[in-house]
Specification:
The structure is a single chain. With 359 residues, the protein is mostly beta strands. It is built from no helices and 28 strands. A 6-stranded antiparallel beta sheet has the order 17-27-20-21-22-23, with no helix packed on it. A hairpin with a 5-residue loop joins strand 12 (171-180) and strand 13. It is elongated and about 135 Å long. The relative contact order is 0.18.
Length: 359
């Protein structure tokens, strides 16, 4: 049989933070959006003074490549007009053989080189490229589909992220919304206050971090949770089966606060423990904190309290003939109810605090 457990509500107050190593001083570092197709950033300034006059984006010239565009046969006479001497053949030349008169004259022909097949070389420009980062730059990372260099595809707006180091240790995670401006350049839509040591400028709204003094290591921080044990008669359950005739239920408990388990004829509100007409009530002795139990019928304690343990086995039996209800602990009858119970019945449970368990 499975267990019935009242669970707590756990709210994360602050998530766990992994340990972070020290951050060395940074003279200058740039955070930029990936450039559109066919564009690249120029080398970044090496000092903050050059930031104001830095021309950020340019269009690199096309890259040309040589390709083979078919082949052409060239007869041997084109290389050796007088039929004598030697010639340096261009790369890729392949000999072509044919039957020619024998030399010196003899009967029949012989197989010899009659010419060469040469590749036709043409120059073509490569398609525009997606250019990657230049030295000293970090690209903003975007959600969704992106080009090979991280440039977001589609019409936008787009959500981008980057992390800026903090002098106190760790990083500030920055999330901004970007749109495509002239030439497809990605620019932020906000006017946020940037972290310390940061400025923004230029047509591409590049963020420059300069003069960063470095930061110490940060030890790991465990998750901090708020735990609501949901104290009160606000949780319970009623058995799916409803039975007539001779009925009994057997169970054990591990109770830290309080619980009630027993028979009920009808229980529309599972949190109302008074609807359990014949049951065991469990709690802790308010003086010494020891586990204890008593018989409870319709919300009232019947008889004396007695000590109990987690490995005790409790049983409640109902006999159909006269409706007699008997209570049993560890195979020993301890009480017979003065109140008969007739008709269809179920097993009901009410739990007071998270961690209380019936099994």
């Amino acid at each position: 049989m499975g267990a019935l457990v009242k669970t707590p509500i756990i709210t994360v107050v602050s998530p766990a933070v992994p340990a972070q190593g020290p951050i060395p001083p940074i003279p200058v570092l740039f955070f930029a959006t990936p450039p559109p197709l066919g564009y690249s950033y120029t080398p970044v300034p090496t000092t903050p003074a050059g930031f104001a006059n830095w021309v950020q984006l340019f269009q690199p010239p096309l890259v040309w490549v040589n390709e083979v565009d078919g082949y052409t046969f060239h007869p041997l006479s084109g290389f050796l007009p007088d039929g004598e001497g030697s010639v340096e053949l261009p790369p890729g030349a392949e000999p072509v053989y044919g039957m020619v008169p024998a030399t010196p004259p003899a009967v029949g022909d012989e197989l010899a080189v009659i010419g060469y097949v040469l590749p036709n070389i043409v120059s073509r420009p490569l398609p525009p490229q997606w250019w990657g980062r230049v030295h000293g730059m970090i690209y903003v990372e975007f959600d969704g589909d992106t080009a090979p260099n991280g440039y977001p595809l589609g019409d936008g707006p787009f959500t981008g992220h980057f992390d800026v180091p903090l002098a106190g240790g760790g990083y500030q995670h920055i999330t901004r919304t970007y749109i495509k401006a002239s030439l497809g350049i990605l620019v932020p839509t906000d006017h946020m206050t940037l972290p310390p040591y940061c400025v923004q400028g230029g047509a591409c709204k590049v963020v420059m971090l300069s003069g960063f003094p470095g930061a110490p290591a940060i030890p790991a921080q465990p998750e901090v949770d708020s735990i609501d044990y949901r104290e009160g008669w606000n949780a319970g359950a009623t058995s799916i089966d409803a039975l007539d005739g001779d009925v009994h239920t057997v169970f054990s408990v591990d109770i830290h606060a309080a619980a009630i388990v027993g028979f009920c004829a009808s229980r529309p509100d599972v949190t109302d423990y008074t609807q359990i007409t014949h049951g065991f009530y469990f709690d802790r002795d308010p003086m010494i904190g020891a586990r204890r139990c008593a018989i409870m019928e319709s919300g009232g304690v019947v008889g004396a309290w007695f000590a109990c343990a987690v490995d005790d086995v409790f049983e409640i039996r109902r006999q159909t003939a006269d409706g007699t209800v008997t209570y049993n602990v560890n195979a020993t009858d301890i009480y017979t109810s003065a109140r008969p119970l007739f008709g269809v019945i179920q097993v009901g449970t009410s739990l007071y605090m998270a961690g209380d368990e019936v099994f």
